[in-house]
Amino acid sequence: MRWDVDRFEKSLHRCNGCASIVGPASRPYLSPAKNAVSRLARSLIVCAACFLFVNANSAHGETLSAKDRAFFENKIRPALVQHCYECHSAGAESIGGNLLLDSSDGILQGGQTGPALVAKKPGESLIIQALRYHGVEMPPDDPLNETIVNDFVSWVQRGGQFPKSIEPNGPAGIASVAKESPLDREAFWSFLRRRDVPTPMIDDTNWPRDPLDQFVLARIEGAKFTPARDADPATLIRRLYVDLVGLQPTAEETEDFVADFQIDQPKTVERLVDQLLASSQFGERWGRHWLDVARYAESNGDDGLGRNASFPHAWRYRDYVIDAINRDVPYDRFITEQIAGDLLPAESAEQRNRQLVATGFLAIGAKPAAAMNKLFPMDVVDDQINTVCTAVMGVSVACARCHDHKHDPIPTADYYALAGIFASTETLYGLAGNEKLTAPPTALHELKSTWDESQRHQPTSASTDFPPNYSDTIDQLRPLVHAKLDKAPGDLKVAGDVSYTAANYAKVKNADLRGALNNAEDSYSVAFWFKNNTDNLARPITAYLFSRAKLGDKQLPGDHLGIGGAHDKSRSGKLFVFNGNQAKTSIVGTTVIASGTWNHVVMIRSKNRVRVFLNGQLKPEIDHEIAATFGDSTEFCFANRSDKFAPLDGNLAEFAIFERGLTDDESQRLHLASGQPRGAAPATVVLAMGTRDKAKPADCKIHINGGAKKGAAVPRGFLTAYRRLSDEKDPSKFVAANYSVNADESGRRELAAWLTHRDHPQTSRVMVNRIWQHLFGQGIVATPDDFGLYGARPSHPELLDHLANRFAEHWSIKQMIRAIVLSRTYQLDCQTSQRILDADPANRLLARHNRRRLDAESLRDSMLQASGQIDLNPGQGSAVEKVVSLINWPAGEATTLHRDSNHRSIYLCMLRHAPPPELAAFDFPDAVSIAGQRNATTLPTQSLFLLNSPFLVAQSSALANSLPKAPLNANADSVPGENVSDAERVTMIFRRALRRSPTTDEQQAALRHIQAIEEKLSPTVDDAHQRQNLAWASFCQALLSCNEFRYID
C-alpha cells in the first residue's frame, strides 16, 4: 500500500484499514512486556480500532454473491423442496403453522411462533432448533441427517439469503428451459458462438500497442474520455513481478530496469516479461490461481464430528498443476488430462503417471463423510459435475439435480446425462489407513482407498522371499494351494500334489493338481508374482505364466486357458489371456510390462467369464466371456511356454490357487499386502488421488427431487442448450460440436473433447476472463464463475470474443498473458482525472489500472523475501503426507504442520477448515467450492494479524537482524562492512522492504520512531542490545505492514 503523504511520521499514523490519518495524540508506543517484540507502535494499534467501526450490511439487503447463491441452490433449495415445501410453500394445500419457507419475506416473518430465521445467528433461529429437534420437531416423521442440518446452519451463518429467482416478485423461472423454443440472445449470450469481431475504428491510432488496445480505446473515446498516462517504470516492474511470479523485484533490479527503460522501453519490457514467464516461479504463481478453481485442499474438511480426514497424496495434483503451467501445456490438453487423463494414450510411463495424477482434479473435492448414506455416491458426482462445468464453462448446473435450472437453459435431464458420465467413474482418494485415531474413523475410509499410480515394482535382486503379511493375507483367503517359494532356485514341495521347480521359465515343470476340484468347470482364481527380464523385440517371445490344460509338459495342447506375457510387434510386452479351443481366442491387454519389474497378477475364472487384475487394478480390456474348454482337466501349469517361440526370460514368485472366484476387494488386498520380494530394492509404489472408469459404465436414472427415488434413465451426454443456440447466419450449424459417448467407457474422454472443441462458446471465454481478472483485479465479466443469466454481463463483449478467439488458436496460457501485459491497457497508471473517477468509479471503461491489495500468498512470500528468509526451492511432498495416521486433528495440531516452512505459500499444508493462519486472515478461499474470485474484505482480524502475528514478528526481527548495525558506543571504532550509521541502516531496510531509498523526511521520521521505542522500553528492558533489537524490529514491522508494501499500483 503506497504512502499517500511524503512525511514518514504521518504514514506511521495512517490507518491501514480506512486510510485516515490518526491525530497527533497518537505517538509511538510499545508495551513494556516480555512480548514487546510482538507489538507495534501505538500508531499501528489504532488501526485495529478503526477496523471495528466498519459496519456490516444487513444480510437481506445485500446482493447474493455467486458463491452464496450456488450454496443455496446446491444445498438448501433441494432440502426445502424435498422435506418442507409440501406443508410450507405457497403451493401447499394447507400451510402448516402459517409458515412459508419459499421466500425471504416468509421465513423472516415466520409463522405462529415468530420469525423462523435470525440472520447469522443459527442458535437463535427457530428453523435450526426445529431441525435439531429442540422443542418443535421438523420434519415431523424423522430428523434430517446431520450433514443437511449442518448445511442449514452454514446457510443461516451466511445470512440466510434467498436468490431473487424464487421470490414472489422476482423473475420467473425460465419456462423454455426444457423446450425446443428459442432463447433470449442477450440473456444467454455466453451460450452463443463467439463472433469474429473486427477491431474498431479509433481516433488516436498511435496509442494501441496490441489489437486489444483498440477495443478498450474505442470505449474510452466513445465516452469522451482519454486514458490515464503510462505507469512509471518502477511501478511497472513491481506490477509485472507480482502479477507474473507473485514476488517483488529487488531495489537493484528496479534501478536497472528503470535505466534500461529510458533507453529502449519496448525491448526492456519484453525482455523482462519473457524472463518472468520462463521462471519456475511463474508456475507457482499461476498454478495457485488454478488451485483456487480446482478447490484444492489436503484434507476432506471438518465433518461436524471433529474429524478432518487427510488427503496425504493431494500434493501430487498441486505439483502437476505447477509443472503444467510452467511447461505451458495447451489449455485444451490441460483440461483434457484433468477430466480424462487415465483414458488417454501415453508415450512413456512418466506421461502416463502425469495424466493419472491430473485426474486428482475430480477427486480432491470435499466429501460428506459424516453422511455415508445411499446418496453419497451422487453427492460425489454432484461435486464433480459442478466443478467441471463451473471451472471450464462458468456455468453451475448443480441445482438441476432436483429440478430444471431456475436461471439457465439446463433441464434436469441434462444434469443426469452428465451424471451418468461421472457415476460411471470410480473416484480413488489415495487415503492411507489410520491406526492412531482418538475418535472413530470417518466412513470415508471405508471406501476404496489406494491407487498405484506407477504400477511398478523395481527390485534389483531375483530373490523371491515375500514378507509375512502377504502369506498371511493369502492364508486368510483359504487357498487350495499356496506355494511359498522359500528357496530359489531349487525343488520345492507344497501341500497337495503340486510340485514346483526353480523360478526360471525355461526350467519349470508343470504343477499338477489332481482331484482338488470336483468339477473342472468350477470357478477358481490364481494369484502370483512375476518379473520380466526380457527387453528384446527382435523375435516373437511368449511365455505362459499360468495355464490350465488337459495335458502338458512344454508343448501345450489345443485346449487350454491361461494368461501369458509376450514380446512381439503386436503385443509389445503386454499381458494376454488365451483360449486354445477351436475359436483360438486371445485377448490382449494394453499395459506394457516393463523389463526388470515385478508385477502382481490375479486371474479370476467365474464360470465362463475371465477377469484379470494387474498390480491391484482390474484391466477392463481383459474382462470377457470365454467358452469352456477343459473337459475333466486337473492340471495347472505355471511358467510354461510353447516350443514354437523363444523363451521369455524372467522369474515367477509365490503363487496360490483358489477354488472360487476372488472378489475385486480381495484381489486388491493381495496386491497391497505383498509389498515386493525380499532382498529387492524398495518398492516404487506411488499413491495418488484420481479416477478410473468403472468396469461396467451405465447411464444414470433421474433422481426425483434429487432424492433416492429414481425415474427414467438418461443417455450419457452433454448440455443440450447448444443445439438450440445455433449460429445466426446458419441455423443448422450447432454452436458446439456434439460427441456420442462410447458405451464401453464412462464418457469423460468425449466430454473433454466437447469442452475443448475450438468452437465451444464458453471454454475459451471463461479462461481468458480468468487471466484478465488476475492481471487487472476484475474480469471483463465481473463474475468469473457465473456466465449465466444471473452473472454479470461483459463490460467489453467484443474484446472478450477477440481474446477468446486468439486464445483458442493455440490454447497457450503464456502467450495470452504475454499479449495482455505488453498491451498499453495493462501498462496504464492507476492515477487518472477526477472527472473519470466520478463517471466510472468501478473502472469498467479500463481508462486506468486498478490499485490492488496483495493476495494472501504474495503478502506472506513478500514478507519472507524482504526478511531474507524465503526458500525458493520447490517444496517436496507435504507435511500432511508424513502424518497420515491423523484424521481427527487435536487442538493446535493442524496449524503446526506449516509454521516451520519458509517455502513459498503454495507449498504450505492446505487443510480444509484449518488453513495456515497467515493466509486465512487475508481472504484465502476455504476450498469447499470453486473460488474463481476471492473476497476482498477489510476486517479487524487483518489489522490484529499485522500487530500480533508471530509470523510477521519473526520476519520483522529477521529483517532487522540481517543488516549491519551502528555500534552502541558512539566512541567505538567503526568496522568497515560490519558497522553502519543508523541513517544508513534505515536506507538499507527501506530498500529491502520497499525497493527504494527513503526521502530525507522519511529517514528522519524513522530515526525518531526508533529512538522513541527505545526510550519506552528503558524502564523494563535493561539490556541495551535487546532494546535496540526490539526498536528496530518495530520499525521493520511498520514497513512490512504499511500501505506501500501491501498494495500494488
From TrEMBL:
Residues 747-1009 form the DUF1553 domain. It comes from Stieleria marina. Gene3D superfamilies: 2.60.120.200. This is Planctomycete cytochrome C. Residues 84-142 form the Cytochrome C Planctomycete-type domain. Residues 211-426 form the DUF1549 domain. Residues 457-470 have a biased composition (Polar residues). Pfam families: Laminin_G_3, PSCyt1, PSCyt2, PSD1. Transmembrane segments: none annotated. Residues 450-470 are annotated as: Disordered.
